[in-house]
Amino acid sequence: MTTFKTLIVGAAVGALLAVAGVAAAMAVLNPTAGDVATEMADQANAGGTGGKAAADPNEPPNFYGAR
Amino acid sequence: MPPPSLSADRVTVPQSDVERSRLLLYGCAAVVVVAVLAPLARAGYVLRYDMVFVPRQPLRWDLLVPSGTLPRAVPQDALVGLSALILPGWLAQRVALAGLLAAAAIGAGRLVPARRDLTRVVAAIGYAWTPFLAERLLIGQWGLLICYAAMPWLVRAARDVRLGHPGAGPRVVLAAACASITPTGGLLALATTLVLARPDGRPGLRRRGVVVALAVAALNAPWLVAAAVATTPLVSDSRAVAAFAARAENWGGPLVALAGTGGIWNADAVPGSRTGPLVPLVTLGLLAVAALGLGRLRNRWADGTATRLAWLAGGSLLLGAAGILPGTSGALGTAVDLLPGAGLFRDGQKFLIPYALGLVLCVSLGAERIADRVPAGGLVLVGFALLPVVTLPDLAWGAGGKLRPVEYPAEWAAVADAVAADPGPLLSLPMSAYRSYPWNPGAAVYDPASRYLPAPVVVDDRLAVDLRPGVLVIRGESRAAAAVRDRLAVGGPAADETIRWVLAQGGGGDRPAGLTEVYRGTELTLYRNPGYRAAGRDPVAGLAGYLLAGSVVAGAGWRRATTRRRPR
């Protein structure tokens, strides 16, 4: 019974770690089209944060932050 | 900070094992520091949201005792100004960031009442690699993170006070002093001390607990006195409660985000990995493991500390959720509107620190419990130690490259020299609390003029938050900034007789009427106002808070030093 419980718990922990690891690696290595578009827009704005859309990179950001 | 003992569970451990365990923790801490802060090996300053470091931050009255704004960075700014007497700003920033990461890892690793070294590693990496730490780092609140780093040391010392261990009182005060460099940290330190250090035994111990609690309360004196002498209204805009409430990071919703120690209000401060679809499942899994570990924590800390810590953690989680729960959000808004100082609680997620520590301790012991029951228990613990990194990989390398040092253009030093020659209040235009610069791409930062220049700086302290949809402009408290806005709104002059200098950031533009151009660079233009009339007195009374807190820290340091020197 102890061996069986060990196997179950070990498998559960292993599966959890494997799934989380694969998902995280995919998230890092394979950004979605939305991420790419956001990054390109940020680079184009050269200000990046705060919903800034102005062409002048010296302008203050429009927002302190965005929800 | 005083080192907590490794034998936290009061199990006798051979000295060689203790040394090995310590070395392991120091190694873990070093790896975490390098992994997170590697980009800071380059020269320059990381400038992001509230994190503003400058070459030499002046010790200005308005930073020590801000009378025109709320004392949100008191006594943090005083400490940075003092450090500038011996350290350049770039080095102070690295010492602060590396120190807080290392202290968090070592503190948690030493605190957990573990029977295995690897359990300590799980706690060390787990506490130094949380969504909370990543998000508050990305929003630049390093002062709050020093409280985060001090929390394990404070918990340990407060427990020792309650158990009557000699020398514990000074340790509580010193750990709480580190935690109290911001008002939020000071309140968290006080709450932690009140909950964990309050003895329930002999009258002598009770008296000692009261003295320690009073000393920790006194550490809050700098910002309390500054608030008391401030000329600005101490109540805030209640609409900020909704704007700064905890936020969902994925399909799990804000409560699950909080349960995983995330949920900061600002989407720009959330690591990309937190938005993954599996994150809520990992959070629920961690909660299940933590439930396993809670029993073990209660057994190892059979004196009741585990229960008290659970109450403290639960309270901090409730405070974090107060802005989103029906009933409490309304009550919080009313309090922010009416009660002086209640604005501190509008961003409730920042109070999650005790919860984060409790969660990490319980998960570590839950992992140990699982490891005890399987043949390859060590491997399970290694897996749990790596789990935070696997699920939050974008904290590494300066939070995915977002924390990268930049150099100030040379014109900042030129402007500072010009202002230093004739100090007086400076107005920073255009009106905005936060700036973005082409030389600091991808990051908004609190106006560096407020820290760089040797003069009081008037900035617009309103905050615009993109609610998607809609924009909320949270009103500020500075009367000086409001007066400037009113003048500009009717086409009046930017500077009146209370303003000595006007700094126009962004370059270009015509010279404002009535001002004399002193310096013009590509990005900064400095004007002198010939109509300036010096007025007002420095709030010397505000120093009383520093004297009180400084005396308490000095006394605790002296007691600590003499206690350690005394032969046992």
Could you write a compact summary of the structure shown?
Chain A is mostly helical.
Structural features, described:
- The complex is a heterodimer of chains A (67) and B (568).
- Chain A contains 2 helices and 1 strand; from the N terminus they run H-H-E.
- Chain A is mainly α and 67 residues long.
- Chain A folds into 2 domains: 30 residues; 37 residues, no CATH class.
- The longest helix of chain A has 28 residues.
- Chain B is α/β, with parallel strands linked by helices and 568 residues long.
- In chain B, the strands form 3 sheets. Chain B has a 5-stranded mixed sheet. Chain B has a two-stranded antiparallel sheet with strand order 2-3. In chain B, strands 5-6 form a two-stranded antiparallel ribbon.
- The two termini of chain B are 21 Å apart.
- Classes of the chains: A mainly alpha (67), B alpha/beta (568).
- Strand 1 of chain A pairs parallel with strand 5 of chain B.
Q: Could you report the average pLDDT of chain B, rounded to the nearest whole number? A: 94
The tally of helices of chain B reads 23
Give the helix proportion of chain A (percent range).
55-70%
Number of helices of chain A: 2
How much beta of chain A, percentage-wise?
under 5%
End-to-end CA span of chain A: 51 Å
The global form of chain A is rod-shaped
Helical coverage of chain B, percent range: 40-55%
Counting helices, strands and paired strands, the structural category of chain A is mainly alpha
Number of domains of chain B: 2
Q: How many β-strand stretches of chain B?
A: 9
The count of strands of chain A amounts to 1
Our estimate of the beta-strand percent of chain B is 5-15%
For the largest beta-sheet of chain B, the strand count, sense and barrel status come to:
5 strands, mixed
How far apart lie the N and C ends of chain B?
Answer: 21 Å
List the strand order in the largest sheet of chain B.
Answer: 4-1-7-9-8
Uncertain runs of chain A: 44-54
What structural class results from the helix and strand content of chain B?
Answer: alpha/beta
| Largest interface, chains and sizes | A-B, 40 and 53 residues
